[in-house]
Amino acid sequence: MNAESGRSKQWLLTLPSLAWLGVFFVIPCILVIVTAFRPADLQGGVGSGWTLETIHAVNNPAYLPIIWRTLWLSSITTIVCVALALPMTFQMARVGPRMRQVLLLFVVIPFLSNFLIRIFAWKSLLHPEGPLTRLLHWLHLIPEDALLLNNVGTVLLVLIYTQLPFAILPLYAAAEKFDFGLLDAARDLGAGPWRSFAKVFVPGVRRGLISAALMVFVCSLGQYMIPQMVGGASDEMLGSKIAQRVFADRNLPHASALAAGLMLAVLVPMLIVAVWHRFSRKEGAA
Amino acid sequence: MDGFLVIDHVSKSFGSLRAVDEVSLTVAQGEAFSLLGPSGCGKTTLLRMIAGFERPDGGRIIVGGRDITALPPEQRPVNTVFQNYALFPHLNVWENIAFGLRMSRRPREEIRSGVDRMLELVRLSEHARKRPAQLSGGQRQRVAIARALVNRPQVLLLDEPLAALDLKLRQHMLMELNAIHEQVGTTFIYVTHDQGEAMSLSDRIAVMNNGKVEQVDSPVNLYEKPRSSFVASFIGDANFFTGTVVEMQHEGYVRVSVEGLGSPLVLSNGTVSANQTLRLMVRPEKISLMLKRPPSGERVNAFRGIVEDIAYFGSHTRYRIVAGEHSILAQLQRSRFSGGDIDPVRGTEVWMTFHPDEGRVVMLEGEA
Predict the structure, then answer these.
(1) What is the pLDDT of residue B61?
(2) What percent of chain A has pLDDT over 90?
(3) What pLDDT does residue A282 have?
């Protein structure tokens, strides 16, 4: 088989997934961007013609603190999730196959119940009359008037809780393929357990690390249910605003403009990572 | 006990399995020493205990007068060349070799000169920037050796260093390992299941079986004077006979009556007594074949047999000869067949002879 026909065969094989991506990802993205340049009509739909009005409306300094909050909440969520997932997956990959299955099951089990229900569970757990609040009062760990709900810390906590599996799964896939004999080699060459972990295990799973970080960061950016349900009035994220424009204001172009901005904010870093990946792979092969 | 590396009554069990059983060994500074044995004999466990990856249940390990039994691997003056090399895939050759020096936070200049010197020693200077995945098997192994030796270990452990290489490369690396050992003068401990490898790499070999050391000796002595039938059969081929001592002569020679064969005169290891049942061993290449009966004499062992099978190997020919219930293997260079120009064919009656010094009394298995 020559290289030419091999390549065309590869194209044929990837065609279904390319078609899927085209229909369900690329075209909707373009539609969202296009809608941002349409006028809103009074019935909550999209009018005909073109306008830059929405872009001017979105360019509003009131959005800045929300964008900033969205970014730092997502960043901290990413850092905490990856920092927790690294040692967890390290252990998961080292235990026996049976134990491994059990641990994996524990990671996946939360998905069996509805996302909203899980957030409601947090809501009742942290409620001023809820069991956790009362227990902490009783132990004098928090003051009488402390509120565990409706603040930005709670938003962060629930964000981390919901995103952690998305960090564990790609990291676990990488850790499972990691050759743990390399850690013996690192110890043999004078690295203590911590340095072996940092200098050999972490670089060894770096692909999974990047996937995990991207996954968590991107998913966090678009959250709107969590700030709405466990956050306070001043804890909105960009996703909350988009939802508000769609459901409350019935202004689709405005929502589209915000969504397009968010989308670009997600796609640009991903593109940079992809290019860097390709570049580093080329360098490795040179 | 003197010696550079001292293994003192070291034991290790995994569950009910006694992997290493009260092993004691002494290795001199600069020696090339092999732990040889079949898989599961405990040699790898012993190596991992010297490296620090396993903690012995009992006993001590001493290097250069210092008890290292309780030290973690990173604090031992010992480095390992792993069986699959365990090179770090995210680092290039240069960085792999520099890893140990960086971990011990040596000055930058010392790291650079040390790594460059090692690259020269293993002749990989022009591959310094390559990743391990871009190297051949032999090159990877040389990186693994350089990565260990750059730390100037007092003992270098090599776990089946040639097992992953193909035959041709193996023979080349054998010479290379000997050259590197000669150049650096470090104590080398090889672990191998390949007797040929152990024989050509080491000054002395410890043959292990079931967690115990059967014999520690030079390659020549292990081959020529094996003490147990396990050693005799593990290193090279051997014919074994069981017989009874019928006559004790001076200087350790004994005459042993072997049923169905005769009464050969052999050399004992000095611990036999009259009427004792024992095992004797003759190497196939120590047996000569003749078409006619050799002239009889006091010191000639000659037995009649029928050629049953012939296998020609080029450099030598192997004959399977049946004498009574015994099936005896003899190995000859073609030109050494004496007593006629014709080659024996299957069914030919031949005479086997061997010198009394070539027949040796070995211990029965399990009587170490």
Answers:
(1) 96
(2) 42
(3) 56
CA-CA distance, B38 to B90, in Å (whole number)? 34
DSSP for residue A191: -
Q: Which tokens sit at A252?
A: 């689709």
Q: Which of A189, A209, A210 to mutate to test the interface with B (most CBs of B within 10 A)?
A: A189
A30, A53, A247 from A160: Cα distances, Å? 31, 37, 26
Nearest to A189 among B100, B133, B134 (CB): B100
Q: What phi, psi does B30 have (nearest 5°)?
A: 80, 0
Please give the CATH number for the structural domain made up of B5-230. Answer: 3.40.50.300
Domain B231-362 has CATH 3.30.1360.10: no
Residues of chain B neighbouring A179 (CB-CB closer than 8 A) = 86
Q: What is the pLDDT of residues A161-175, one digit of tens each?
A: 999 999 999 999 999
ipTM above 0.85, yes or no: no
Over range B186-207, report the average pLDDT.
Answer: 94
Residue the block writes with tokens 């993205």: A29
Facing residues of B289 across strands? B352
* Closest chain A residue to B88, measured at CA: A182
Element (H, E) at B321: strand B317-323
Domain boundaries, chain A: 63-250
Closest CA to B7 of B187, B181, B160: B187
Q: Identify the bridge partners of residue B349 per DSSP, sorted by sequence position.
A: B306
How many other β-carbons are positioned within 10 Å of the β-carbon of residue B313? 9
**B290 phi, psi to nearest 5 deg:** -135, 150
Token duo for residue B302: 């000659």
Domain boundaries, chain B: 5-230, 231-362
Question: So what's the architecture of A63-250 in CATH?
Answer: Orthogonal Bundle (1.10)
pLDDT at A1: 45
pLDDT bracket for residue B338 (50, 70, 90): low
